[in-house]
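worker-3 :: picked NADH-quinone oxidoreductase subunit I
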Amino acid sequence: MAPIPGSGLAKGLAVTLRTMTKKSVTAQYPDAQPDLPPRTRGVIGLFEENCTVCMLCARECPDWCIYIDSHKETVPAATPGGRERSRNVLDRFAIDFSLCMYCGICIEVCPFDALFWSPEFEYAETDIRDLTHERDKLREWMWTVPAPPALDPAAEEPKEVATARKTAEKLAAQQQPPPTESAADEQARAAEAPTRPAGDSRQQTDQPRQRPADGQEGQE
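worker-3 :: tokens ->
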């Protein structure tokens, strides 16, 4: 069946009329803040305590917009006679958001959960050089990161939590004193022990009976 001439135009005008009759909703930004979803990719926050300066985020960044500087420090031995160790100390961690394309690769590859997405997006600057946020600024963004969603009650327990729980239970069991025998256990053990009959009060011995002397036999 051939389409009726002008049917497409009529459908388009019908959509326009339905839209015109609806009440328009305008968000009065910035007076009214938008309701953003929790996984909004606004800005990246840095949790400095978890950073080990592994440089993995900087190497995987496709835009090379992450700058990291560090130095090594010697840590004294924890026990006498132990060996000294060296660790990396973070000196600079900066992200140039004028180059960042918000792909999230740095957050995904971080093995120590030092980078997080924050829904904050109000950090526009008049100078492009101010879009390079140093670690102090990145740490301020960290406090705007929303809490993670609750786990599914039917989900399996995470391996890290299960391992920590088993270790805590093992240590608690080692620290507990050995169990003592209760009064009920003592009574039960006494009831199970064999008892001597009431009429048999003699004590039998393996020693032979001594014979009386000759003088004693005559007197008897």
